[in-house]
Write a structure and sequence with these properties.
Number of helices: 21
Helix content: 25-40%
Strand content: 15-25%
Bound molecules: 5-deoxy-5-fluoro-D-xylulose
Distance between the termini: 72 Å
Number of strands: 24
Structural class: alpha+beta
Largest sheet: 7 strands, mixed
Shape: globular
Oligomer: single chain
Mean pLDDT: 96
Low-confidence stretches: 1-7
Length: 538
């Protein structure tokens, strides 16, 4: 018989059903990634005609992806792995991630097909008629503003909805997408027996039955009460009728939702005991892949800058998103997005550092922490955290100035971007702790002088981490954690053998004194700009 602890390279698989591709990694018991593969929708599944994995509709607001493209991508990867001789018999467990907020609509009767898959046929050949909505709404959609206002009104306003579900209403959040489908396509809605997220849809394919939605990805729907971990009846009924029965009950993210479907045992040679651990959102899975712990913060420095926070006591607000934590059921995580990220850094590099990153770095090295009290706000596109546009500079005496010398401008930009991150993170309940690590990733994380400012502003060491596969790797880690289900082994223990991130910068001496004084100053000026640009409170 199959002995899970003898024989070849026993492993766990981590899947990521993301916007542009389906990706898989195989991780062995020493937590080394020894196999990875991906199928790109635009390149490998041309017949669907997607761009960036999606279809942007004529209205410029509606954005969808064909659900059967996701199914066919899975077929393609599994067939390729089989052809390469991947030894599926060594897979002890698998888990995965999906782009957040997207939704899949299973047509009445689909469960019979899902539970009776023939191992002689590809999945997409058998699931052709299983979806009442062929084009799934995805996170890039912004066509549900009306539904967002209706939902907020139904529960007592934006802050009330945020306190309940962790976020104010956002167009991409699934409850608003379901409301739009119920309102505009009631026929399809009435022929829908189950609604999945992309994550639980992918898990359902492996399970051969409907997988429940996990607490963490479920927190991205404007439907789940994140404290009690139950659906909010007020939100459900505000979106569509009979919704709870179509969603099923949510489960803890570390749950083993069942054993792999016999389809995979017979067609690919997976062991019958292979466990399926609940799939979750790509960002929660990335937090797991980065092995974020209490007090840590992950900063993804890209086109827009994204903060991943670990929160014990969240303070839901009108900005950012609070989700149930994917690896610790008692805690939470938060996402905070700053749209003026690398585009702003490149603009100031071009204007004030002769288009050169080395001059940019020189400017940072030639100016002091605190920039002699000069503070700047640089938002060439409308910022969302907070909602400010334009450039605003202030001297040490709090007087508005129209320009800074080149090197002062460079430091004002970087200090301002990182002080804003700390202030808004603390607004959501984040606190720097003695054991805090900052994990930096993305383009700007290759610049040590930029990371030095990050370390100084937060008063914590900065490590660099490669997050290219973090959602997949995090999913494989969560699969290992699922194998230890029932042992109460914490996730951090299960993954302690994983490779460590590399230390890149530690706080300069005197940093905390400088920024403890400057942070409140920066916060006050931000409020002053908001008051001016937003106009007097109504
Ligand atoms: O909308 C988002 C998070 O709220 C995106 O990061 C998607 O999860 C990307 F797939």
């Amino acid at each position: 018989g199959w002995d899970p602890w003898r024989g070849g390279r026993r492993c766990c698989l981590g899947w990521d059903f993301s916007t542009q591709q389906v990706k898989v990694v195989a991780v062995d018991a020493e937590l080394n990634v020894f196999y990875e593969d991906s199928v790109h929708f635009d390149r490998d599944l041309l017949e669907f005609g997607t761009q960036g994995g999606v279809h942007v509709h004529e209205d410029g607001l509606t954005v969808t992806s064909p659900v059967l493209m996701w199914v066919q991508a899975l077929d393609t990867i599994l067939e390729r792995m089989k052809a390469l001789g991947f030894d599926f018999s060594q897979v002890l467990a698998l888990s995965g991630a999906g782009q957040q907020h997207g939704s899949v609509y299973w047509k009445t009767g689909a469960s019979q097909v899902l539970t009776n898959l023939s191992p002689d046929l590809l999945l997409h050949k058998q699931l052709q008629a299983c979806f009442s909505i062929k084009d799934s709404p995805v996170w890039m959609d912004s066509s549900t503003t009306a539904q967002c206002r209706q939902l907020e009104a139904a529960v007592g306003g934006a802050q009330a909805l945020s306190s309940l579900t962790g976020s104010r209403a956002y167009e991409r959040f699934t409850g608003n997408q379901i409301a739009k489908i119920y309102q505009q396509n009631p026929e399809a809605y009435s022929h829908t027996e189950r609604i999945s997220l992309v994550s639980s849809f992918a898990a359902s394919l492996f399970l051969g039955s409907y997988s429940p939605i996990d607490y963490s990805d479920g927190s991205g729907m404007n439907l789940l009460q994140i404290q009690d971990k139950v659906w909010s009846q007020a939100c459900l009924s505000a979106c569509a009728p009979h919704l709870e029965e179509k969603l099923g009950s949510p489960v803890p993210s570390c749950s083993v939702v069942g054993a792999i479907s016999s389809y995979y045992v017979q067609r690919y040679g997976f062991p019958p005991g292979c466990k399926v651990v609940a799939f979750t959102g790509d960002n929660p899975a990335s937090l797991a892949g980065m092995r974020l712990e209490e007090g840590d913060i992950a900063v993804s420095l890209g086109t827009s800058d994204t903060l991943f926070l670990w929160l014990q006591e969240p303070i839901p607000a009108l900005e950012g998103h609070i989700f149930c934590n994917p690896v610790d059921p008692q805690h939470y995580m938060a996402l905070l997005c700053f749209k003026n990220g690398s585009l702003m850094r490149e603009k100031i590099r071009d204007e004030s550092a002769s288009c050169s990153w080395s001059d940019f770095s020189k400017a940072l090295r030639s100016t002091e922490m605190g920039n002699s009290g000069n503070l700047g706000f640089y938002f060439d596109i409308m910022e969302i955290t907070p909602e400010i546009i334009g450039r605003h500079r202030f001297s040490a005496e709090n007087l508005k100035v129209s320009a800074f010398p080149g090197d002062v401008e460079v430091r004002a930009l970087i200090e301002g971007q990182f002080m804003a991150k700390r202030i808004h993170a603390e607004g959501l309940g984040y606190r720097v702790m003695p054991k805090t690590k900052i994990l930096a990733t993305g383009g700007a994380s290759h610049n040590k002088d930029i990371l030095q400012v990050l370390a100084d502003v937060f008063g914590a060491p900065v490590y660099v981490i490669d997050t290219a596969n973090s959602a997949c790797v995090g999913s494989a880690y969560r699969a290992f954690h699922g194998l230890a289900a029932g042992t109460d082994l914490p996730f951090s223990e299960v993954v302690k053998l994983a490779p460590n991130p590399q230390l890149a910068a530690t706080p300069s001496s005197g940093a905390s004194q400088v920024y403890e004084a400057l942070l409140p100053q920066y916060a006050k000026l931000e409020q002053r700009i908001l008051a001016q640009t937003r106009g007097p409170p109504e």
